[in-house]
Amino acid sequence: MLLTGAWQFDNVRSHTAGVLLVQEAGGVVTDLDGKLWEPASESYLAAAPGVHAAALEVLTS
Q1: What is the pLDDT of residue 56?
Q2: Which of 5, 13, 42, 56 would staple 47 via disulfide (CB 3.0–4.6 Å)?
Q3: If 0-12 CB within 10 Å is exposed, 13-18 middle and 19+ buried, where does residue 43 land?
Q4: Whole-structure pTM value
Q5: Concatenated DSSP letters for the chain?
Q6: Max Cα distance, the chain (Å)
Q7: What phi and psi, each to the nearest 5 degrees, are found at residue 28?
């Protein structure tokens, strides 16, 4: 199985280290409104640059 994205709707701060790893590896991390992720965000989507926009569209439609 190939995982190209991950998202979380709650308990987001417990995933801060993983989010940082994705960012450092060149991935895109935003909240589910498409805004840059920060520790105070209530959700996140972490994905490869080529699939982030499409994943965000699917999750918010």
Answers
A1: 92
A2: 5
A3: middle
A4: 0.77
A5: ----EEEESS-GGGGHHHHHHHHHTT-EEE-TTSSBP-TT-S-EEEE-TTTHHHHHHHHH-
A6: 31
A7: -110, 130
* Residue at 18: amino acid letter: G
β 5-8/28-30 pair status: unpaired
| Count of beta carbons in the 10 Å neighbourhood of residue 7 | 15
Taking the CB of residue 33, how many other CB atoms lie within 10 A of it?
11
